[in-house]
Structure formats: C-alpha cells, structure tokens
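Morning. Coffee machine broken again, so started the prediction first thing and wrote up yesterday's gels while waiting. Chain of 150 residues, entered below exactly as on the submission form.
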Amino acid sequence: MRSLMSPFVNRRILLGKETVALYENVQEFVVAEVDGEVVGCGALHVMWEDLGEVRSVAVSPDHGGQGIGAKIIGELERRARDLGLSRLFCLTFEVNFFGRLGFEPIGEHVVAPDVYAQLVRSPDEGIAEFLDLAHVKPNTLGNTRMLKHL
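Came back before lunch.
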C-alpha cells in the first residue's frame, strides 16, 4: 500500500502516513488486486457513532479509469453500513470523483457542539482535518470537505 500511495503523497494529494500507522490501521483498509498485484486501496476510519471517514484512497495510474476506485468506495460504504454508520466524510482534491459517488461539499458544522468537544480531544490528524483545525491547514490547503449520507 505504501508504494501505491507514495506518488499521491509526493504530489500532496494524499497525506503521508508513517509505516507504523499503516500497520496500526491495516484492519481499516481494503485493497483491490489484479493478477495478484495490489492496484488500489482505501480505508474506513470510524470517527463517531454515526460518522466514518474514507481515507487513503489510491489507484495505480496503470489501472485508472477502470472503476477500481468506485469499487473500493462501494466496499467501504458496505462496511460502514454494517457498522451502523449513516454518514461518510472525506477530505479530497478529487471532488468530481467523490461527487459522482454521492458525496457533497460541506461547511464547517457537521457535528453537534458536544460531539465536536469530544472529537477535538483526539490525537488523530484525520479528525483534526475533519474539524478543520488550524494546525492541519498547511497540509490540507485546497482540499474539499465532502459528506455522503448512507
């Protein structure tokens, strides 16, 4: 997954993740394979009782345009529903891709103030991105916050 995500990290499309973070969160990932080769990946991170985040979605440029990304998102949505989640968040430069899959741009207030107060305590950078906290803005400048109701 690291080698698959690296070109997107280098172009600042995806946030880089330390190898230890990939191992710690491997259970959140799904992968797509073609002839035994991993050609796509994506992760579902549970943020709150009804809210999850789609993270680290990447498809090999050699396999782009084949619907692999949409299939990865579809599997992550299935997993989200199985967990009882009703909303999925993403922070992305790929607005058209996620828009075709039912995600819509959102403003800043997606959770109630009491939930915000709990989430702001998390050390997770993805949650900081979701909350639009100032310390992550240099990493996410230009990204669009999007949400899908399941």
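The first helix runs from residue 2 to 10. Going to sketch it on the whiteboard this afternoon.
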